Amino acid sequence: MKDSNTPPLRLAWSIWGFGALFYLMGFFQRVAPAVMTAELMQEFNISAAALGNLSAFYFYSYVAMQVPTGIIADIWGPRRLLSTGALVAASGILLFAVAPNIWWANCGRFLIGGSVAVAWVSTLKLAGDWFPSKYFAMISGIALFFGLVGAVFAGPPLRLLIVAFGWRSTMLASAVVTFAICAGVWLIVRDHPAEKGYAGFTDPAPAARNTSHRKIISGIIEVLGYPNVWLLFVIGGGLVGCVLTFGGLWGVPYLSTHHGLTTTQAAALNSVLLVAWGIGGPIFGGLSDRVGRRKPLFLVGVTLTAIGWGLIFFVSNLSAAVLAILLFITGFTSGCVIISFAFARESVPAHLTGTVIGLNNMGFMLGPTLLQPAVGWMLDRNWNGDVLNGVKIYSLSAYQAGFTLMIVWAVLSFGLLFFTRETYCRPNGKES
């Protein structure tokens, strides 16, 4: 090694940044259907429930990959995992872009979700190895912000590109960008500072890299034995489920249908929610690190989030300006969910970091996986028969019936948070 010094921040950020860049692309693909709902429904001749299912195919594979991803991250390391994920993601985007029917489109979304699932866990794994642990919650929030930048690009900019070039050509271009990210990851990213001649903040050769399959299984069982892990699994699903069900699919058609906005204007307003979510993450994470506690800020955030969604969905005749303010506040307070990663990480032994991060992220994605098609099903159930240009139009009461499912989960998250045990920001500590 060159010396015993830890890596310079510029190097650490550049290594970590490629993981964050892939996460940005994954988030872009996650919410892209929100601004092409009409095109997809017309192209494939599908209903709201089928559209919700098409969008959710991303989440089906994403959720299924979380625990395996956490284990593979501990064994393979982030570099191989990220580069493989980016290669498969680019192939899935390509398949979605040229899909001749809904079956192939679903397959493309399935490949995209399963492959970009590695981005978040790998990025946090890099954060743990390349940065001091006291910055973990803040860097987790910055990672989420990167994702939300991708979501913003999937708003008005993507809508304008679709209008100009069509959705298929635009998706093809995003596949090319993802192939480029794959090459960059392989050339630049390294798993541990030791590979660059520096001392790291973790063991450069953790036991999990060389462990047996039996020990891997016992590690999963061990993680599931911590109550905080289960509680945070459900809590995160409620908060993320609301943001990505509204911001990732149903927000744009709802806003354009019932608030007199064009699709581009609705996409811009929808982006306010996602931008605020990205801003709230690092702020809540940083404040939580500073005060040395996890629960109090988490409770404040969940409370305000549930109230915000109730106002957005059930107070009538809101102006665009008031909606923008409410969406910003609700998105910002939803950023408190980032605390759960540090919360969960501190609730288990250090050697289970990758596994618990994967499981926690699985809980995050369980929310939109269930809520996106569930809201679509509720919309179809309450449809009154209106059609415009071959696309079903849903009434305000139909949307409110669907959005009620989101409110219920948000309130459940609030209640379950009281049963979690505070870790007092002690890294890798067990519950006491």
Q: Calculate Rg over CA atoms.
A: 21 Å
Instruction: Give the helix level as a range of percent.
Output: over 70%
- What is the total tally of β strands? 2
Looking at CATH, the homologous superfamily is MFS general substrate transporter like domains
Q: Span from first to last CA?
A: 39 Å
Draw up the topology in text:
Elements: H1 9-31, H2 37-44, H3 48-76, H4 78-98, H5 102-130, H6 136-153, H7 156-165, H8 167-188, H9 213-224, H10 227-258, H11 263-291, H12 295-314, H13 320-334, H14 339-345, H15 353-381, E1 387-388, E2 391-392, H16 396-417
Antiparallel strand pairs: 1-2
Helix pairs in contact: 1-4, 1-5, 1-6, 1-8, 3-4, 3-5, 3-15, 4-5, 4-8, 5-6, 5-15, 6-11, 7-8, 10-11, 10-15, 10-16, 11-13, 12-13, 12-16, 14-15, 15-16
Annotation keywords:
432 residues, mainly alpha, Growth Hormone, Chain: A, two-stranded antiparallel sheet, 1% strand, globular
Explain what the structure shows.
The protein has one domain: Up-down Bundle (Growth Hormone, Chain: A). Helices cover 75% and strands 1% of the residues. It has a two-stranded antiparallel ribbon. It is mostly helical. The protein has helices spanning 9-31, 37-44, 48-76, 78-98, 102-130, 136-153, 156-165, 167-188, 213-224, 227-258, 263-291, 295-314, 320-334, 339-345, 353-381, 396-417, and strands at 387-388, 391-392.
Question: Gist?
Answer:
Helices cover 75% and strands 1% of the residues. It is an all-alpha fold and 432 residues long.
